[in-house]
């Protein structure tokens, strides 16, 4: 469960801190008192991200773009799919659990994949066994959940720089 | 009506319909895990549509970025919360 923590270059930490500060400025504003609190918040966020983010968990920019271009239309399909079922006179549901295999090791990457998968059509990962069996709740068991899960995992792994997301 | 206002009206209405769908799903779907699907997916798309609809009404780029950040943070929290609730429900069902 504990992510691999290693020494990080100062430039990487600084870049991360600046990113958090920009997020603060966008959300809260630039008055001096807010900026002062923002500096403390950005420092705390950088420290926390150093603990939580795996040491070798790099994100590939092109892979991230490919993932987002796939994720956004899928999110629309997911929302419309739920809306269609909710508005139907008799909700067209055949809910149940489907077991799939995941090749991602336990850790941040696998938890992130499960969280992102829960925003994709018809699937909600609920638990992962120690042997890598993923239990997915689906709204309609007649759909090809295993194939969809494998495609989601492949898209997610394409975003990871080392391809397997250690820790 | 200005095109920007028509755009806003269209997207915010679509977003509101998605929120209605999420609430209907919460009331009509048969079990907790199915209801989580409704909340996490329909509401996120609804919020996204409302954010897109409000973008032309922003008076600065920062205000637009703020809306997009709010949407992204809401997506992140919805995904994380639904994972935690789903895990708790699954553990309770499968027993100690």
From TrEMBL, chain B:
Keywords recorded for this protein, A-Z: Membrane, Transmembrane, Transmembrane helix
Zinc is among the record's keywords: no
Transmembrane segment boundaries: 6-27, 71-90
Pfam families associated with the record: PhaG_MnhG_YufB
The UniProt record lists the keyword ATP-binding: no
Record-linked InterPro entries: PhaG_MnhG_YufB (IPR005133)
A GO MF label: sodium:proton antiporter activity
PANTHER family in UniProt: ANTIPORTER SUBUNIT MNHG2-RELATED (PTHR34703:SF1)
Protein name (database record): Monovalent cation/H(+) antiporter subunit G
Source species of the chain: Bosea caraganae
Lineage: Bacteria, Pseudomonadati, Pseudomonadota, Alphaproteobacteria, Hyphomicrobiales
């Amino acid at each position: 469960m504990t992510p691999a923590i290693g020494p990080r270059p100062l430039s990487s930490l600084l870049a991360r801190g600046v990113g958090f500060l920009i997020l603060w400025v966008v959300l809260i504003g630039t008055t001096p008192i807010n900026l002062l609190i923002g500096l403390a918040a950005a420092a705390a966020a950088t420290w926390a991200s150093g603990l939580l983010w795996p040491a070798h968990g790099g994100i590939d920019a092109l892979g991230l773009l490919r993932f987002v271009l796939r994720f956004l239309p899928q999110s629309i399909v997911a929302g419309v799919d739920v809306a269609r079922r909710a508005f139907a006179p008799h909700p067209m549901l055949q809910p149940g659990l489907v077991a799939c295999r995941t090749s991602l090791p336990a850790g941040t990457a696998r938890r992130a994949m499960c969280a992102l998968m829960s925003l994709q059509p018809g699937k909600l990962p609920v638990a992962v066994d120690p042997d890598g069996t993923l239990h997915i709740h689906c709204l309609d068991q007649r759909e090809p959940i295993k194939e969809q899960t494998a495609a989601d995992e492949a898209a997610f792994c394409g975003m990871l720089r080392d391809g397997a997301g250690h820790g | 009506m200005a095109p920007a206002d028509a755009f806003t009206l269209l997207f915010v209405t679509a977003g509101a319909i998605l929120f209605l769908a999420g609430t209907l799903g919460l009331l009509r779907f048969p079990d907790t895990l199915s209801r989580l699907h409704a909340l996490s997916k329909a509401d996120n798309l609804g919020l996204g549509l409302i954010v897109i609809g409000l973008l032309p009404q922003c008076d600065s780029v920062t205000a637009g970025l703020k809306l997009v950040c709010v949407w992204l943070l809401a997506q992140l929290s919805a995904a994380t919360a639904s994972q935690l609730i789903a895990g708790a429900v699954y553990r309770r069902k499968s027993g100690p």
